[in-house]
Every structure is written in C-alpha cells, then in structure tokens.
Amino acid sequence: MTRIDLRMTVLASAIYFVEYLGRYGLAAAKIEMIDTFGGNAKALLGLALTLMAISYGFGQIVMGFVGDRVPPRYVVFAGLLGAGACNVAVGCATGLPLICVSWFLNGLCKAMIWPSLVRQMTCDMTDDGFQRGIVWVSIASNVGIVLIYLAVVPVSILLLSWRLAFWFSGAAEVAAGVVWVLSVRTIPSVGLLKTALRAHPDPAEGEEKKKKTSPLPVILASGIPLLYIVVVAHGLLRDGVTGWMPDLLQATYDLGNITAIMSSAILPVFSTVCVIIAGMVYMKLKNEMTSSAIFWGVVLVSLGCLTFTIGRSAILTIILLALTMSGIQAINHILTTRVPHRFASAGIVSTVAGLLNSATYVGVAVSGYGVAVYSEAFGWHATVIAWFCVAAVGTLALVFCFARWKRFISKQ
To answer: Quick one: which of 119, 110, 15 has its CA closest to 65?
Structure first.
C-alpha cells in the first residue's frame, strides 16, 4: 500500500470497528436485559432489533443517495455522534419503550456511516489500495463483534450491569466521530472517484451525457434488483444467527447467560478468517457472483448438517453455526463492499452501497422479531430448518444473477 492508502485503511477500519461496538450491544446483552425487565421483554427486545433494522435499511437508501452529494466527512461525523447518543440513552433507560425508540434512532444514525465511508475510501485510495484495504475494514467489524460478545458485555455485567456496555460503546462512537472529522481532511484524494463522483452533472455537458450519468439504467443493467433478493436472504441469516445464537445455546443446552454470550464470540473469529479467504477467492476469480456462490455452498452444507445434529452436542452446534456465519460474512464482504466499487465510473458508489446494505437490513428486520416469534412457536430445530430454506432461496437467486452481471463487468 501507498502511505495514503495505509492511512485511509487504518482510519476507516477504526471507524467501522467502533461502529460495530455500538451496533451489536443489544443483541449481545439481551439475555441479561430479559432478566432485568422480565415479562414480555424477549418480544420487545426482538422488536427493538427489528426497528433498528427497518430504520437502518430505509436510511441506507436515503443516505446512499445523499452520500454521493454531500461531503462524507460531515455525514460520517453526524452519524457517529448520533449513534453514540442513542447507545448512552439505552444504557440509561428504565423501560423498554425508550430502548425501542433509541434503537430505532440508532439505526438511522448508523445508516449515515457505511455508504459515505465507502465513497471516501474510493475517493482517497488507489484501486489496488481499495481492494486490499476493504478486507481490513471487514476484519475490523468482526473484531468489534468479538469484543462486544467476549469482553465488553460480559465484563460490564460482572463489573456493574449490562448498562455499562452501552455507555462504553456510546462514548467510543463520539470519540471516533471527533477523530474522523479531524483526520480525514488531511488525506488527499487520489482514487477513482476524484473526478467521477460529482454532486451533479455539468449542465454544459448536454442531454446525452446527463442520461448516461443517470443511476437507474446502470443499476438495472447490472442486475442489482435481483441481487437485492440475494442480499436480503444473506441479511436474514447473518443477524439471525449472530443475534440469536446465545438464546439457541441457552435454550437447547441450558448454558448460563455469560457462557452463552461468550460462546457467540467464536462466530466473528471464524468469519475473520473467511473474509480473508473471500478476498483471495475474489482476486482469483474477479467475479463477485461466482465468488459468493462458493460461500453460499458453505452455508447450505453447514445448515443442512445442523438440521440433523442440533440438540446432540453444544460444541458441534457452535462449530456448525460458526461455519454458517463464516460463509455469510464472506458473502457480505463480496456483495456489499466489492460490488459498489464496480460503479465508480458511474459515480454512484455510495448509492449502490446504500441499496445493497439496505437489502441486508430488510433481512435483519425479518430476523429480529421473526426469529423471536418463530422460535417461541415452533422451537429452535424448526428455526434452523427455516434458515436452511432461506439459504436455498438466496443461492437460487444468485444463480439467476450470473449472466447479467457477467455482461455488465465485461463492458467495464
């Protein structure tokens, strides 16, 4: 990497690491929060996760569009400050309604970060630097998940209560926002979008040029609408497995709260390795669809085995869930971080990043409340079978993307 690429990689990785601390606190702490609030707390906390997914998913579409028109320095800064305040509010909440509202607003603030962060990286980094650096940003998010499950929430419970985890994450996000807004202005723009990303087309360029720079024809020609279904399926599985693994382990194997929470830390550890492998596979194949198809196969095999083995061994269940999550994270890395980079020449990197990330959180919205209700009604074995069916739908939809995506990238 060049010095500029390295600086931007370190900064973006740090921002995304902290952003994940403030995103997964509720999923990691909800077992302990259920004990605190009692009653129908499980359903309402599931609703809070769903509300965040809805606000984040909708916000990604809006903020993706905004991110191609407003300097990302200010958009990311505002998102981090708002998300930090929402986490602190949850830590101070004495009732579940405030938690639901705060987590809904947290999703809106979080939506401001990713599309603009990708745009800033594409502006400031060389093409080779971006392809290398985006792997480290994905790894940083997994490290954030490991820390929230393995250290922040368990240690907070032992020292004081689950509230401390939200206060810590909120303070970290505010500090990260200050570091971002002061640091990013010192990094010069040397990347693909230095000239391609413009706030508006130049009126002097004529009607033909304006039509060419319109995002809709490019999005339709590349097959993004069909890919949206694939990403929805992957999002349902990603947060379904990550968010509800502690509950599954506790209910199926009678593990304690802290043990179940800490067991979930193995998911991002496996996922980090798989993200590195995904980067290597992509650099070899140079095709996002065929690369992600390999990892859909991993997900199908892992969930297929789990449908026959759940309830027999906690260790085997953890390993199979970790393999499932590894495949999902590899798919996430390829489809939501590398696909938007293909749209640099069209100047709509942030728009595409927002669209695809919104699809992820449509799936998350279904899993947040849906898994809570479905697992209560039918049990965890039936839930695993449902996850397998979702993976099959995602794989099939991906296959239908192959031809159109191949034509799209061949013209670049």
So the answer is: 119
How many angstroms from the chain centroid is the CA of residue 26?
15
pTM score above 0.85 = no
And the tokens for 258? Answer: 């802290």
Q: Let me know: does 177 contact 33? Beta carbons within 8 Å.
A: no
Structural domain count, the chain = 1
Residue type, 365: A
Euclidean distance between CA atoms 408 and 396, whole angstroms: 20
Mean pLDDT of 210-238: 80
| Tens digit of each residue's pLDDT (9 = 90 or more) over 359-405 | 887 887 777 667 878 888 888 889 899 999 999 999 999 999 998 89
φ/ψ of 197, rounded to 5, equals -85, 110
Instruction: Write the CATH number for 155.
Output: 1.20.1250.20
Residue 363 lies in a domain: yes
- Are the beta carbons of 144 and 21 closer than 8 angstroms? yes
The answer as to whether 51 is a domain residue is yes
Q: Which of 271, 249, 269 is nearest to 260 (CA)?
A: 249
10 Å CB burial of residue 272 (0-12, 13-18, 19+) is buried
Phi, psi of 194 (to 5 degrees): -55, -40
Instruction: Give a yes or no: residue 24 inside a domain.
Output: yes
HSE (side-chain half, CA atoms, 13 Å) at 203: 0
The domain in which residue 268 lies consists of 3-185+212-410
Sequence length of the chain is 412
Q: Which residues make Cβ contacts (< 8 Å) with residue 259, sequence separation at least 6? A: none
Classify residue 194: in a domain, yes or no. Answer: no
Q: Which residues contact 157 (CB under 8 A, 6 or more apart)?
A: 29, 32, 165, 257, 258
